Amino acid sequence: ATTAIERAQALDPMNPVYPLLRAQLLAQTGTTEEVREAVTQAIQLKPNYTEALFFLAQLEVAEGNVAEAIAATRSIISLEPNNPARHYQLGVLLSANQEVAGAITAFERAVALDPNYANARYLLALAYVEDGRREDAIEQLNVVRDLNPENAAVSTLIDQIEQGQLTTGVTDTA
């Protein structure tokens, strides 16, 4: 596979696909430095290459570099501003980085772009709980329950919020 990628890149040296393919292959067999070098080469060839930026964000997360993953995700959003999954991804990263206000904004944008995005609504509700916005959280969870009527955990979570038993966000219920 490496030989084929190198041969193809030699024939088409300005195509960013080949360095990204090499990075993906190296992610299985190479060092982190080699992976980073290959994906960086793809981005240098095409700075708006969303697949390479997404791969870089995944690499940053895997290495525990949440701030860098957030920056990479924001770069992707600048290229794909109407992609709800990218806003959701940013919200997850911001939540992991304890940036509740930013996470709320990102999840709200994801929900605005796709009102049926149950996972975004669920995590938005948890962020609202964290922010002390219980009524907003319940509103989001009611929509999640409507979208997923078989999920009893959502109803339990709503009950816990209504009874004041849950006052901070949780991440392991869904």
In total, how many beta strands?
0
Order of helices and strands, N to C?
Answer: HHHHHHHHHH
Count helical runs: 10
Q: Bin the strand percentage.
A: under 5%
Question: Helical content, roughly?
Answer: over 70%
Report the sheet with the most strands, covering strand number, pairing sense and barrel closure. Answer: none
Q: Mean pLDDT score, rounded? A: 90
Mass-distribution shape: elongated
Short description:
The protein is mainly α. The protein has helices at 2-11, 17-29, 32-45, 50-62, 66-79, 84-96, 100-113, 118-130, 134-147, 152-162.
Secondary-structure topology with pairs:
Blueprint: H1 2-11, H2 17-29, H3 32-45, H4 50-62, H5 66-79, H6 84-96, H7 100-113, H8 118-130, H9 134-147, H10 152-162
Structure description:
The protein is 74% helix and 0% strand. The chain has 174 residues and is mainly α. The termini are far apart. The model has no long low-confidence stretch (mean pLDDT 90).
Structural descriptors:
174 residues; mainly alpha
